Amino acid sequence: MIAYDEPDTHLDYEHQRRIMKMIETSSRASHSSVIVATHSLNLIDGVDIQDVVHLGSSDGQAEIQSLTAQGTDKEVRRFMSNMAASLGFRNSVLLHEKCFIGVEGPTEYAAFPRLFRIAMGYPIQSAGIALWSCGGNDGSLKFAKFLKEHKRTVAFIVDRDSKRDKQKFFNDDRLSINGFQPAECIYLGNPNEFEDIFSGELWARVANDKWPHKEATQGRVWTAQEIDALRREPKFSHSLHALFRNGSEDAPPKKEQLVGFLMEYIEKPSDVPEALHSVFKKAISIAEDAGPHPWDEDD
Question: Which residue has the higher pLDDT, 165 or 59?
């Protein structure tokens, strides 16, 4: 076991990073374990948030706070907020923040952390990604544009049909003029929306369990075929919600609630659609390439 006590003391940031690489090399050896005591955000930022243990005191007794591999996104955010506050920062300060990702709304904002953890094996915060719900595809673009103008690393994830329905904003030339690189403009859908990346078989399974058909007593069940037929509609998610609302008395009243029920059926990496694996890898790449952006004299 190798123990380091404040190894970053009196070192500049470059040498702190060199120390961190040395520690990481030591920890990967099969015969060794490493413990580092530090107050340095620079070192904390270099490891998986699941590997951080926060030591504090309560009523004169030592208190240990840590995350489990199954910790929810809310638990991760609470842990980070409490740790930031104890280190003397405002609760709003997010450790591990390397880039911002704007998403369309509450559906993606609620689902992405769980899907990311299952697909990638670690919390989205450990990748340095801060998600923001932006109230629509145009809101995501405005959010990303604002942060880009202030030299922050940012990208947006919107439904692929944004390029069809809002061509004025989501076209390559216009985005390029606003300073966006292709890699920062992430589109999701198979072919058009977040909801349609999930298979008809999965949607049918969820619906038969959660929202049985009105004629279920006569043997009527939801089928993948009738759900897949909706992919030809201009807006799959609206048609899907209408199908369940018209055919079941138990269907959720709001379209945004559909994916929340579906999340219960995502348990292992292979359950996460390949389209999302690809999106998450792009987001990770953006975070890994993030760095300081100097302001030019002309800006």
Answer: 165
- Of 158, 79, 78, 73, which Cα lies nearest the Cα of 114? 73
Q: Decide: residue 94, CB within 10 A, 0-12 exposed, 13-18 middle, 19+ buried.
A: middle
The pLDDT, as a whole number, for residue 269 is: 96
CA dihedral 251, 257, 114, 273 (to 10 degrees): 70
Look-up of token digits 């692929």: 160
**How many helices (H) and strands (E) would you count in the chain?**
12, 8
Neighbour count for residue 17 (Cβ, 10 Å): 16
Query: Which domains are delineated in the chain?
Result: 1-47 (no CATH), 99-189+273-288 (3.40.50), 199-265 (no CATH)
User: What are the φ and ψ backbone dihedral angles of 262, each rounded to 5 degrees?
Assistant: -65, -30
Give tens-digit pLDDT for 120-177.
998 898 888 989 999 999 999 999 999 988 888 999 999 999 999 999 999 999 999 9
> What pLDDT does 125 receive?
84
Q: Are 186 and 283 spatial neighbours (Cβ–Cβ below 8 Å)? A: yes
Q: CA-CA distance, 109 to 115, in Å (whole number)?
A: 11
**d(C-alpha 95, C-alpha 118), whole Å:** 21
Residue 184 confidence (pLDDT): 94
240-241-242-247 Cα dihedral, nearest 10 degrees = 90
- Total-model pTM: 0.76
> In Å, how far from its chain's centre is CA 110?
9
- Rounded CA-CA distance 18/231 in Å is 51
Residue owning tokens 């559909």: 258
